[in-house]
Amino acid sequence: AKRAGRGTYRYYTEALTAAAQNKLTLDTRLRRALEQREFELYYQPLYRIADRRLIGLEALVRLNQPGLPPVGPADFIPVLEENGQITALGAWVTQEACRQGRAWLDEGLDFGRIAINLSPQEVRRGQTDERVRAALQASGLPADRLELEITESGLMEQGERAEAFLHNLRSIGVQLAIDDFGTGYSSLAYLKRFPVSKLKIDRGFVRDLPGDVSDAQLVQTMISMGRNLGISVVAEGVETEAQLDYLHELGCESAQGYLFSKPRPASEARAWLPRLAEA
Ligand code: C2E
Ligand code: CA
Ligand code: CA
Ligand code: CA
């Protein structure tokens, strides 16, 4: 028993050391990436279901460091949130999305809106809102071409702080979307406090459609919540025509997912964009 105990202990410390080292390397990689601008934005299209018209693009950050194993945002965003560098990444993401949006407009291309993701820590009045204003001004992107996605749980976590922050940005025309909707247990009354223009149904509720009856009911409830609040509803993670047809039947306005496209670099996203209508 003693030997097994010691063995377990050694295994445990080795695992801990490995985890600490992994974190250290990722930490170092992220620091370098921020300094040397090794992040890249990919874009995923959102379509209106009724006529399959492009209504927007979601910017999703990627880390492509040559010679190093790829790591996705689900793994590195939490590290940046922990070490306080998420605001540095957020600043870059905001500037880059605004710059790219303006460049497309200047080429006469219509992307609808560009959405960027904000971490809950960024939802602080006096920091991110100033940064967003500055990025809009520097790029010349009209404010109503920019949308901010904040998760439902992040919104609840920030409470009143989020309310002031969001009203401030909404007043200059920036649109607000609630991400991962359905996972944060917010009520209709709660949502009414925020100037929200879009609800994004979490892909966990979409995955098993049309077969899963309870998921279908939940999705239907979320769609009627959107209706009651006058907010448009997008389904995330749509991968099949059957899911899309069913969402359409349930009254869902728009959709995003691998069925249409995976997130792609700007150079490829360009091919999806129709020409701007003549003013
Ligand atoms: P999210 O905002 O919920 O983004 C949607 C994620 O689902 C993306 O993963 C996207 O590639 C993936 N996805 C889209 N359609 C489908 C589909 O049909 N099937 C499946 N299985 N997946 C689909 P990604 O790009 O790995 O991003 C993961 C998360 O990382 C994002 O979740 C978001 O929370 C965070 N993130 C990404 N970029 C940023 C950023 O610039 N800033 C911040 N703060 N967070 C970001
Ligand atoms: Ca999102
Ligand atoms: Ca989401
Ligand atoms: Ca399910």
UniProtKB/TrEMBL annotation:
* Chain ranges of the EAL domain: 23-277
Residue ranges annotated as coiled coil are none
Tree of life domain: Bacteria
What is the name listed in the Swiss-Prot or TrEMBL entry for this protein?
PAS domain S-box-containing protein/diguanylate cyclase (GGDEF)-like protein
